[in-house]
Amino acid sequence: MENCQIGAGQGLGTVLRTTLTNNEEVLMSKQNNGALISRSDFLKTAWSAAGIIAALEFGGLSLFYMQPRLAEGEFGSIVSVGPVDDFPAGSVTHIPDGRFYLSRLKDGGFLAIYQRCTHLGCNVPWDQTQEKFTCPCHNTQFTANGELLTPPAPRPLDIFPIFIEDSIIKVDTGNPIVRQNFDPSQVVYSGLINK
């Protein structure tokens, strides 16, 4: 083992240098409480840290690019359905771009009902002749306001928030409302006040 001094201003103090059996050079600093680190261990650690940083950067960029780019009027964004007067009382209209049904109840109120069954996620069509939603997977049936009529679905169909601006119905398909039962407060009316 040999002693060598590091030049002034380098701040490590006395460094002891020794050669191990596999000819690796090891530096031991008196200020480092005698901890040993080989050149190869240092390089392994440095390359590992650089690899982790690169992976995190790549992962962050990948997540950024995988986020959906929502265009207005498509599912996941705000869908303009049309003027209030285009939907007669007691009608149910499929809005395919928004993946929902606009149900105008007999009292004139509106519900935007998600077309996905709450049982297994099947698309639930509106049966105009029977005036109810019937799931093709397990025959679950729902009323025009999405209330559960027959199981196996555990709860009513989900709904989307509706707002009316300048007599145009708009539905926010990015925020489905999970509900456990139908409540009249969920119905939106074309006037300023909900009934």
Q: Mind explaining what this structure looks like?
A:
This protein has a 4-stranded antiparallel beta sheet. The chain has a 4-stranded antiparallel beta sheet with strand order 6-7-8-13, with no helix packed on it. A 4-stranded antiparallel beta sheet has the order 9-10-11-12, with no helix packed on it. It has 1 helix and 15 strands. It has one helix spanning 39-66, and strands at 2-5, 14-19, 25-29, 36-38, 78-83, 91-95, 100-104, 110-114, 126-127, 132-134, 141-142, 148-150, 159-160, 162-165, 168-172. The model is unreliable at 3-15 (pLDDT under 50). The protein folds into 2 domains: 2-66, no CATH class; 78-186, 3-layer Sandwich (Rieske Iron-sulfur Protein). The protein is α+β, with helices and mostly antiparallel strands and 195 residues long. A hairpin with a 6-residue loop joins strand 10 (132-134) and strand 11. The chain is elongated, with a radius of gyration of 33 Å.
Helices, by number, come to 1
Gross geometry: elongated
State the name of the first-level CATH class of the largest domain.
Mainly Beta
Work out the strand percent. 25-35%
Q: What is the strand arrangement across the widest sheet?
A: 1-2-3-4
Distance between the termini: 91 Å
Helix percentage? 10-25%
Tell me about the largest β-sheet: 4 strands, antiparallel
Tell me which CATH architecture of the largest domain applies here. Answer: 3-layer Sandwich
> And the CATH topology of the largest domain?
Rieske Iron-sulfur Protein
Low-confidence stretches: 3-15
Number of strands: 15
Total tally of structural domains: 2
Helix/strand order:
EEEEHEEEEEEEEEEE
